[in-house]
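Please, structure for the following, as tokens.
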Amino acid sequence: MPANNIIDPLPEQILGVLKSLDLDIVTAEIHCKSVHRKDPLKIQDEAILCCLEHGGDVAAGLVVAVKQRLSRSSFILTGALMETLFWSRYVALSEEKAQVFLEAAENEMRRNMRCLLKEEYAPLVEKDGNDRTAEYKDHQSFADIPRGPSVEDVARDGGLHQYYRDFYPTFSFYVHRKTLPGSERADPEHEMYISATTAHSLFMGINFIAYEWTEFRRQADQSALDRLLWRTPPHSTNQGGES
């Protein structure tokens, strides 16, 4: 954060990308409305809707971070948006994969709860003082909790492993470590520009996947998706996602 909370105006180049990202968010909201109009909803519709809503929240946070010149926060949020892209592609592939996605969060919560109960960090005590922790330690609901696929597996299944390999480690680095060697000498504006332009491409990819599924019930063409992710000019955007 700049000293004394004085924030200088951002360069026009970065502001232009943020405007494109704002349009991406609006496009995602349009796709969400399109999903809600489906009757009945398929399980893939529900999963795509989750990805669109999550992506919109993350992108909105990234816009705020860049405007506040929080370059490291923008990198972290871009990494989160990249995961949303991988999951969006993954859930559109089949009903089975969409089900895996929708169950992943619940399974992770059950796994965490099982750990807390076994270590007695989270005792279950009723209002009358009856401690039922021991009873629930070995409850059937905590047995054989399936593990979901890794982010790398999700990217690979969706045909995006090269993108994962080349870019995901850089953007996820700040989530797990304090800094990169030499990062104290990095240009914050350059970092923010990289984050914003990458996020714009990622969200165009998410919107393209959602558009193809919700409107045509088909998979987004891999070559068209690759063109969006690898060759998108910084300031272009449209409804369907293609440049």
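The CA atoms of residues 58 and 80 lie 7 Å apart. The first helix runs from residue 12 to 36.
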